[in-house]
Amino acid sequence: MKIALLGYGKMGKEVEKIALSRGHEIILRLDSEDDWDKQREMLAEADVAVDFSVPESAMTNIFHCFDFNLPVVVGTTGWLGQLEHVKQVCEEHNQALFYASNFSVGVNLFFELNRRLAQLMNNYDEYSVSIEETHHIHKLDKPSGTAITLADSILSLLDRKDKWVSEKPENDFELGVISHREEDVPGTHIVSYTSDIDDIEIKHIAKSRRGFALGAMMAAEWLPRKRGIFTMADLLKF
Ligand SMILES: NC(=O)c1ccc[n+]([C@@H]2O[C@H](COP(=O)([O-])OP(=O)(O)OC[C@H]3O[C@@H](n4cnc5c(N)ncnc54)[C@H](O)[C@@H]3O)[C@@H](O)[C@H]2O)c1
Asked: Which of 20, 47, 66, 74 could form a disulfide with 95 if both were Cys (CB 3.0 to 4.6 A apart)?
């Protein structure tokens, strides 16, 4: 497959390594607005684009791919507030978009565990719930897209919580999502339920960026020739 990389930072380089090891070719690396202006026509040669860029460019990058009829896999986080609009454009123009706030297979198993635990905990009001995430100091968005996905699942399943807040909650109906930034941490997420009697915790620790890049490549290999909007639940068939 011929792959266009949109964003050639830490993740773009990791995706490149995995892509080459699986026999694919990288035909384009766009890493700035300037690169787009000079090289965007090359998108016509690609089979699929993989975007790991910056939150403020993700939506424009996706629309550029749609203009070229190019299926696009998006790992960039921090733009999901615009998802409904992007979905609408994707459907109207019959394009293909695969997005995930976290491409790691392990994290997606963790998402399923989180949902199951929240279902069980709905009957046990004595447990208070919180989420903590830790990432490297260069991460631009806060809380992480993964923590927001965890929080949204809990909100949809736990009747006693109505909204998440990114500080210590002041009201019982708020779910606290606390972020930490430390040197060299690829991504750690903890969901804790605490009562006077005991604590229950589930935790996912990413040991490197390889799991994210591998999941994104699996999505890139799966997406071409499909039309519509997909995410990891479609790929992993949970
Ligand atoms: N979904 C996942 O599994 C997953 C995993 C890790 C990181 N991420 C997200 O992926 C994104 C990238 O992460 P990173 O660690 O590689 O960041 P990074 O800062 O190392 O790389 C981002 C790159 O995008 C480039 N860029 C800026 N404007 C651009 C534009 N208009 N078009 C193309 N490229 C542009 C920058 O020059 C930079 O090299 C972040 O949003 C991060 O949160 C997602």
From this structure: 66
